[in-house]
Amino acid sequence: xxxxxxxxxxxxxxxxxxxxxxxxxxxxxxxxxxxxxxxxxxxxxxxxxxxxxxxxxxxxxxxxxxxxxxxxxxxxxxxxxxxxxxxxxxxxxxxxxxxxxxxxxxxxxxxxxxxxxxxxxxxxxxxxxxxxxxxxxxxxxxxxxxxxxxxxxxxxxxxxxxxxxxxxxxxxxxxxxxxxxxxxxxxxxxxxxxxxxxxxxxxxxxxxxxxxxxxxxxxxxxxxxxxxxxxxxxxxxxxxxxxxxxxxxxxxxxxxxxxxxxxxxxxxxxxxxxxxxxxxxxxxxxxxxxxxxxxxxxxxxxxxxxxxxxxxxxxxxxxxxxxxxxxxxxxxxxxxxxxxxxxxxxxxxxxxxxxxxxxxxxxxxxxxxxxxxxxxxxxxxxxxxxxxxxxxxxxxxxxxxxxxxxxxxxxxxxxxx
Length: 417
Fold this sequence. Notes:
Blueprint: H1 9-25, E1 29-35, H2 36-39, E2 47-50, H3 62-74, H4 81-90, E3 94-97, E4 116-121, E5 128-132, H5 149-172, E6 176-177, H6 179-186, H7 197-212, H8 216-226, H9 232-246, E7 257-262, E8 267-271, E9 279-281, E10 285-291, E11 300-301, H10 309-312, H11 327-330, H12 334-344, E12 348-357, E13 363-369, H13 371-377, E14 382-389, E15 394-401, H14 405-415
Parallel strand pairs: 2-3
Antiparallel strand pairs: 1-4, 1-6, 4-5, 7-8, 8-9, 10-15, 11-14, 12-13, 14-15
Helix pairs in contact: 3-4, 5-8, 6-7, 7-8, 13-14
Keywords: Plasmid
Pfam families: AllG
InterPro entries: AllG-like, OXTCase_su_AllG_h-dom
């Protein structure tokens, strides 16, 4: 990490060390899969959550706005987009940022009261975080700004079949410790953001005993769901990362980032020493992209995203060196990916004790973005993110850089606290 010379350096470093000790001690556990309204505190039936710091509904544009409208239609507040627009305008339906209620959302991050969410808990504190289930590899995904009859059918299936079946086997298994899966997946080619192949496989294998004891219907539903794609575990990784990041919150003088998220409009961060305050700036910029055939950079659209919570705890783009297979999916090459991870050590406060990277001789992943180090070096976090297209749908994957503006604002606030 860059050397600090300010008069407040020692108190801040002590606060940072305390934050990281809390992070290292956290062992998140999946405890259930339940309808959002049943488990998320403050989740009223007419509230829809979405990615990024809170902004008024009128400020949402493009695919994120379409996802919110689709969610209102799905929950029965309107029959079409015009009716959904009116429902938001009159306050019949309200929108909030996911993290206001302790949830995290993938891409547009739309979460409604009836949707099943994974419930991940810190056993030491009882703190919980929530995330919707992966919608599968289908083209028509609500969190990629598409609401169609196929989207509705898929959401219904997740609500009525996958969620309840998964909840039953998770409870039968007595919950699932997630940190050991994350640890091992890092040594098998995952960085737990854009690549979750190993983690999904490890989770499925761990659940086999509970699945074999389940009903024939539950077993069939879950075997089909787990085998339909590699990204199921991303939602568990996000909720686990949120729980781990929460342990670092609210430490006076601490300059460690505790959350990163963006909407279609802006990118925001939260910092331990500043509590729930969002420091905001422009959207990230892409450093490398790998687009599906037939698409060009002009087709890219930001619809929001909170999966960057994984980077906050040393996963995702920070750990690119652990996931070299991603060079085919996200652009770049192995040497560049390793260099990105090595650069992140310069802006992070520590190396993780438990999460390690084989190609770096099992060095701990860089963890604990320090806003002071970012302000001094001008280096910003690397983000591994899926790429949405204009008009909806996923059109590829990429490597982005967070904007520096929120980190400069946060560094100033911590210095003056």
